[in-house]
Design brief:
The chain is built from four helices and eleven strands; from the N terminus they run ββββββαβββαββαα. Strands 1, 2, 3, 9, 10 and 11 form a six-stranded mixed sheet that branches. A five-stranded mixed sheet has the order 4-7-8-6-5. Helices cover 13% and strands 49% of the residues. Mean pLDDT is 88; it is low at 151-156. The longest helix is centred in the C-terminal third of the chain and has 7 residues, at 149-155. β7 (83-89) and β8 (92-98) form a beta hairpin. It is mainly β and 156 residues long.
Length: 156
């Protein structure tokens, strides 16, 4: 895991930040394989609503997950650009569709806090923890939980 470093005794983790709706999320950079603009999405019949479709990324079939749908945050404004974060999970390729990709942030592990009791349940079910940034809350996504579609659909 090269995303974690130890400088002066303080362990940090690097996160790729993304925006979904009005919320800021962090994905551990060690889990991120690609950042790309999805092209030619093909719908999948009878797939759960959060599966936006499949696409071809450099010869690989990638399942596109609509993060707005997955988090129950409402549909995106038509015509608004979409970005995707490429993730590998259980030997399958996924693209998490997000509103925007931000910067890479290295944050001290010691400052990561447990999910607050008042965190919106839609976010809490996929959160591994939170960072309180200046004027903003960064929710660390539990990638395995996000991509465990079957349990998420059963819980909804």
């Amino acid at each position: 895991m090269s995303a974690q470093s130890n400088t002066a005794g303080a362990s940090t983790t690097e996160f790729v930040t993304v925006t979904i709706g009005d919320h800021l999320f962090g994905l551990p950079i060690a889990r991120v394989q690609d950042v790309f603009v999805p092209d030619r999405l093909t719908r999948v019949p009878l797939a759960p609503p959060e599966v936006a479709g499949i696409l071809n990324l450099r010869g690989r079939v990638v399942t596109a997950i609509d993060m707005r749908s997955r988090l129950d945050l409402g549909a995106q404004t038509p015509g608004q650009p979409v970005m995707a974060i490429g993730i590998e999970f259980k030997s399958e390729s996924y693209g998490l569709l997000v509103d925007a990709v931000g910067e890479v942030m290295a944050l001290p592990d010691s400052e990561c806090q447990a999910k607050p009791a008042n965190l919106d349940p839609r976010l809490a079910r996929v959160a591994a923890g939170v960072y309180r940034l200046e004027g903003q809350l960064l929710v660390v996504l539990d990638v395995d939980c996000v991509l465990d579609i079957r349990s998420g659909a059963a819980a909804a």
